[in-house]
Amino acid sequence: MGTIAQLFESGKQSSDKGLFNNLVMLARVDGRIDDAEVKLLARTAKRLSLTEEQISEIINNPDSYPMLPPLGKEERFERFIQFIQMVVVDGIVDPAEEQLIEKYGFALGFNREQVEKHAPEILEHALSGIHKDEILETLLK
């Protein structure tokens, strides 16, 4: 159902919370959230202007925050890159995370061919430490 505040938030606020929730769920996929993942989550929460209260609400009530994919191609790629960066932050990509990458790509509106083409490329760049903006530039060419 959600809180009263959730009823009055903008589409962008809701979308940002959905993104953060998805990153939290991904960080938890291996059963723990390590220090590198915590740091990335904290940076992402700050960039999204989420308050401590909102962060706590999302972590404690993950089912209340569905993913609302952005409509624009650039924004969808940016979200996909952020998601994959969370996967590789610990330097390990396990099979459960690979499945989540595919699922997340579909949720963002990419078809199978696009996911199969772009996910490995983004993974490679993210593992190499290439900045999100550079990865995005490569994908949009």
General description of the model:
By secondary structure, the protein is mainly alpha-helical. It has one domain (10-140): TerB-like. 70% of the residues lie in helices and 0% in strands. It has helices at 4-7, 11-28, 35-47, 52-60, 73-88, 95-107, 112-127, 132-140. Helix 2 (11-28) crosses helix 4 (52-60) and helix 5 runs antiparallel to helix 6 (95-107). The longest helix has 18 residues, at 11-28. The protein is globular, with a radius of gyration of 15 Å. The model has no long low-confidence stretch (mean pLDDT 82).
Order of helical and strand elements: HHHHHHHH
Q: How many domain modules?
A: 1
Most strands sheet: none
The mean pLDDT is: 82
Low-confidence stretches: none
Q: Report how far apart the termini are.
A: 41 Å
Shape summary: globular
Q: According to CATH, what is the class?
A: Mainly Alpha
Percent range for β-strand residues: under 5%
Helical fraction equals 55-70%
Q: In the CATH classification, which architecture applies?
A: Orthogonal Bundle
Number of helices: 8
Radius of gyration: 15 Å
Number of strands: 0
Q: Which class best fits the helix and strand makeup?
A: mainly alpha
CATH topology: TerB-like
Could you name the key traits of this structure?
141 residues; mainly alpha; 0% strand; TerB-like; 70% helix
